[in-house]
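In response to reviewer comment 3 from the previous cycle, which asked for concrete evidence that the modeling workflow produces usable outputs, we include below a single protein chain processed end to end. The sequence was submitted unchanged, and the resulting structure tokens are shown without manual editing.
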Amino acid sequence: MSGTVQDGLRDLAGTLRQGGVDDPAREARLILAHVLGVAPGRMTLIAPDPLDVNDLEAAHGLAARRAGGVPMAHLLGYREFYCRRFAVDSRVLDPRPETEALVGEALSAPFARVLDLGIGSGCILLTLLAERADATGVGADLSEAALRVAEANAGALGLAGRCALVRSDWYERIAGQFDLIVSNPPYIAAAEMPHLARELRHEPRIALTDGGCGLSAYRVIAAGAGAHLRAGGRLLVEIGWQQGEAVAGLLRAAGFAQVAVLPDMDGRDRVVRGFWPGQDG
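The workflow returned the following structure tokens.
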């Protein structure tokens, strides 16, 4: 044995603190709970219990990786998003709470068929399908590796029968029309990449940046959306907090009506919405 669970938490928090982790006590609990196979909320109850040395060593290994900048979701193998658990690893973007603003807006109106461009882990599309039992969807991604992650998540959530996954460069292999198109595309400008948080270095570059000004994906998405939206259909895209007016302008130029820039939970611009004109728009 190697002391108690409380001793282990204290040691782990020290390692994380030295590595510059913002909330070392909280993350120590997450790591040790993961190693012990218990819910994080039970750590206080078992704090006086003895801690096996092998478990402590395993936890220290994870803590060292976390202190080196590896995202917590990669260590745990999952991320909670919209009250569901999604498998996450280095093949896909780690879902952020801010993206729930896009999901909430999508759920504010009915839809039967949805397209997710750049599906990644599948957190957006699969959440929408889980919340709308009669809906079906298509998820597209250029990364075959990302599609495998989304496929696994679809199976775990019992949604594989209601979504098709397609390897596609945006609309390249997409057929048919949809009530709703959603996307969280790469929007970080190449010049900003060296200044990002170190955790982002462990995520796929293709999911973070377009290699240019950060707007090229929006140009493609806005220009092609009309051919794939029914009259009155919606396009929703996540944006960087300083991109609202620029992306809204692209949607207006592409012919969208009722274009609006919507905030996330912190009040920052996060989603741009547009309606495709027609008898319902």
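Strands lie at 78-81, 84-87, 113-117, 136-141, 163-167, 178-183, 229-238, 257-263, 269-275. We consider this sufficient to address the reviewer's concern, and the full set will be provided in the supplementary archive.
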